[in-house]
Structure to design on (184 residues):
């Protein structure tokens, strides 16, 4: 399996998102390299701030709530974010999405951050399956998912519209049982 290897891991930390991060996320969402493969809806910093007030990490660890976000910090500076949306706690199903600001891309930060989130999620929650989708044209995101132990399950044809054009996406999944195997 192609799980993240533990060599020269960048100094990456995850912290729960806070309302004060709204302007930062809004700015990242406007960067071409972030929007290039994602159909991000238009929103204002105020709308984002309102959404971020709902982020209650304690609920995540108690198996309730649906949307959780973390800021990725590199050497103490915000670099991007990860969002986890729980589709169904009873069945242990969730979906992850992520982005890095342009200045932090291509350094291996996302693989480290996502691996840490997976380790924490599988150790401290009842989630069994975490899905991720990425455009078939987004080679960097595909490499991140593969490094983190996600398996490609197929192509979702014409999955969403991006700048007026229908886009195919890969469907990836990381399973608790596979994650546990890497510790053996």
């Amino acid at each position: 399996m192609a799980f993240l290897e533990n060599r020269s891991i960048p100094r990456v930390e995850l912290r729960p998102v806070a309302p004060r991060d709204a302007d930062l996320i809004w700015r990242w969402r406007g960067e071409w390299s972030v929007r290039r493969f994602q159909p991000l809806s238009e929103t204002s910093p105020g709308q984002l701030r309102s959404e971020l007030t709902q982020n209650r990490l304690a609920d995540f660890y108690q198996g309730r709530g649906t949307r959780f976000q973390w800021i990725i910090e590199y050497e103490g500076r915000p670099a991007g974010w990860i969002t986890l949306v729980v589709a169904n706690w009873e069945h242990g199903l969730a979906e992850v999405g992520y982005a890095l600001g342009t200045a932090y891309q291509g350094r291996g930060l996302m693989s480290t951050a996502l691996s840490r989130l997976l380790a924490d999620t599988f150790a401290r929650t009842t989630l069994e399956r975490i899905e991720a989708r990425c455009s078939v044209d987004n080679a960097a995101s595909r490499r991140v998912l593969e490094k983190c132990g996600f398996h490609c399950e197929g192509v979702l044809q014409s999955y969403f519209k991006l700048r007026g054009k229908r886009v195919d996406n890969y469907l990836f999944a990381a399973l608790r049982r596979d994650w546990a195997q890497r510790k053996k």
In short: The chain has a mean pLDDT of 91. The helical segments are 22-29, 32-35, 45-52, 57-61, 109-124, 139-147, 176-181. The CA atoms of residues 57 and 68 lie 7 Å apart.
